[in-house]
Structure formats: structure tokens, C-alpha cells
Amino acid sequence: MKFRVARHTNRLEQLTDFYVNTIGLSFLGEFKNHSGYDGVFIGRNDSDWHLEFTQTSEPVDHIFNPDDILVFYPESQSEYNDLLERINNSKVDKPLAKNPYWKVNGITLLDPDGYTVVISSLKIKVG
Predict the structure, then answer these.
(1) pLDDT for position 127
(2) Of 116, 23, 110, 1, whose CA–CA distance to 74 is shortest?
(3) Which fold has domain 69-120?
(4) What stretches of the chain adopt beta strand conformation (E)?
(5) Which pTM value belongs to this model?
């Protein structure tokens, strides 16, 4: 099964820059004026998931909670270190995580829409 997270925004260029240049994901594709929507696909070329961000002329009013988060798990210490360097060289907001677990085990960021993104300092464990 493939997985896509889609979100509407008024900041398509800023989100693209954040997820590609700060988080280090790949720009997978885009579309222009598809029934009034512009959009981008961002993720990893070797994965079965991606993020889709769309934009129209309609204003977006996001309502979210600080516990509504995307969590990214770097797969190696090298990838984690590269992420830290990009984050530290960016002007991204780094609020204190609401969840105490992420205060110890990750770095909390805000994307250009104000959604919480966590970069885990631990490898993912499933099961």
C-alpha cells in the first residue's frame, strides 16, 4: 500500500523550500492549474509515501494542535548530522515540544504553515 499526506496551503513555495532544503526530502514532481490547483509532491524516491501540498487562491485557515506532528527518523548518524547542519543554518522556528518524549528524543521545528515537525534522534522501532 502506498501512502500520501495531502495538505492545502497558502505557502507552497515556502513549504517546498522547507521540506526539500531544510528537511532534505526530494522534490518528486508538481502540477500547475489542475482545476485551479497548483501542487507539489515531496518525499523520497525510494519510498512508498510522499507529501502533497496544494495551493489555490482560496485562503487557508489551519487549525491544529501542537501534538499534530510529522516525525522523521533519520536512518543513520550521518543523515542525522546532515539534518542538524541544515536546520542550524536555516531560520526555522524551533519551539519546545509539547510532548515530553520529544523534548528528550528529538528536535522540534515548525514548518511555514506552523505545523510541528520532529526530527527523531532515535532510529524507528516498530513492533
Answers:
(1) 47
(2) 23
(3) 2,3-Dihydroxybiphenyl 1,2-Dioxygenase; domain 1 (3.10.180)
(4) 3-8, 26-34, 37-43, 49-55, 69-72, 106-110, 116-120
(5) 0.91
